[in-house]
Design goal:
The chain has one domain: Vaccinia Virus protein VP39 (Rossmann fold), CATH 3.40.50.150. By secondary structure, it is α/β, with parallel strands linked by helices. It has an eight-stranded mixed β-sheet with strand order 6-7-5-4-8-9-17-16, with helices on both faces. A three-stranded antiparallel β-sheet has the order 1-2-3. It has a two-stranded antiparallel ribbon with strand order 10-15. It is built from seven helices and 17 strands. 25% of the residues lie in helices and 29% in strands. The protein binds zinc ion. The site of zinc ion has 8 residues, from loops.
Length: 274
Amino acid sequence: MDKLKKLASNVTKKMSQKTVKPSNMKPGKDILHSFSGHCPVCDKPTLYISETHNLRSNLFCKNCRSIPRERAFAWCLNEFLPNWRKLVVHESSPAKRSISDMLERQCKHYIASQYFPGIAGGEFKDGVRCENLEELSFADDSIDLHCHLDVMEHVNMPGACFAEMQRTLKPGGKIIFTTPVYEGKLKTERRAQYGPDGIKYIAEPEYHGNPIDDQGALVTFHYGSDFANLIRAWAPQCSVTMITILDPQLGVLGQFREVFILTKYAKNILAGAK
Ligand SMILES: [Zn+2]
């Protein structure tokens, strides 16, 4: 177990070392990649810059510091739900930057939540609402948009999460999210499992940055090309669309660029399906 912990801590350290802040960058020096374009997060002409070849984590917008998956999400949000500013939007596990700042600032009915083990859904800890995606406290048909960025690869029971998001969505509502989908991987792989006796590691432990825990967030799944079919089985009242953007103008480059857009069917379709 100690060996696993050490390994996991090394992975976390490596990941945090890879991330650099654009404010530390000297223009013209140390920059390996730069693209000009129009950022869909801050809605301004900008320069995207990276000091490393890991564009996924380090290709920042010079204005708002957004990264590629945040810009891919923002583009899809504007394209598929252009009136989002007026809607009831729930974001799970916001990172207090970029997209979350944009939603909080511009969205009239924005609800942010984090998962705190041991705290009931709908209760607050230090002013932050607690919600477990596997057991949401929201009423049926009450949310216009559930969204999250790189959260689904950390949950224990994705099927329960999708069933709960579907239950609480209004008919016609959407779930828009990002999560890594592994190219060439046909079948989704569970990497770790939370159980009554603690964590069962099935594969080498892998952690990503976590906005509310310095220890990082444990990766529980590597999703494969069967993921859309799995979602359909978990949320049969929703259509599933996958978008993969490749566009230097939008600053969407690098690995793992998929955005998922689920739409809960309208009432008449749902009634007909019964
Ligand atoms: Zn920007």
